[in-house]
Write the structure tokens for this entry.
Amino acid sequence: MNGYVEAGYVVVLGTLSIYGATLVTRERAARRRVGAATSVAQPGVPTEPQVARGDAPVVNHGGVEDEERGSGP
Amino acid sequence: MPARTVPPDRAAVALRVLGVTALVGVVATVWLGLFVTPPDEFMGNLVRLLYVHPPMAWVAFLAYGVASLASLLYLWPRTRAEHFDRVAGASAEVGVVFTGLTLVSGSIWGRPTWGAWWVWDPLLTTTALLFVLYLGYLALRRVPGEFHVRARRSAIGALIAFIDVPIVYLSVEWWRSLHQAPTVLNPTTHKTYVHGSMAWTLLLGFVSFTLVYIWLMAHRYRLAKLQDREDSEGLEVALAERRAEAVAG
């Protein structure tokens, strides 16, 4: 077709994919750290950080994380 | 007690649906843009960059508009809330990514069309300035300080940077430019210069990449919220550790 056209599409789609994947990975890592920090702050208490009104709970009951939450393409 | 799972919250489900919809839209845009729409009479196959380059610029403008609106709402005492600062930061960061892609995809288009990767054209120059201004805004956000002081100066920075957005858009009208005037909605002639399957594909590109923007911004917002919570809980954790050490000792 045209090398410039393919290059344009690859750059756009590749960059957006990498950025999106990075955001999702960082979000999951931050969610794990917040869960771990809460369990350190409250030893013996099941890991369940407080949730602001209208926000998603960040860790499931019993310390089981929902790995799939908020993921997308 | 056995661990039990909690169903994903509505926001997470909505975000996932949005992500899948955006992905389908982008795949359809790429398929239509590369394989279905016809080549242009003058530009040939290079016109296929039309389906990604203008949507990148549109989303960048949209992102900066949202960042500015959120900054205004933060600065206004009656609407001041931490989430407006996070929305501004998240939207501006995504906007910087889309501005970078606007510059790169435009450069790739410019090389075979103008014979140069870069020219100091008014539109290109003001867009590059926009990119640098919002990089500066993101750097300003990282300057340490008390939350509301940092948020206030960042909001002012976002509003100052936004001044360049209408200048970028109107630069092709104000100055002699190598870049063509707006194709979809020309502010001078009020005409549309793209029709048929090309117009529909371009429209789909605008919608799809706008959905991608919303999806990215939502994830960036959630990350910022978690990071803020991590920062505020850091002290609490340190105190708990000291207490545990004191008890053990």
Q: What stands out?
A: Residues 196-248 of chain B form the longest helix (53 residues). Chain B is about 75% helix and 0% strand. Chain B has a mean pLDDT of 89.
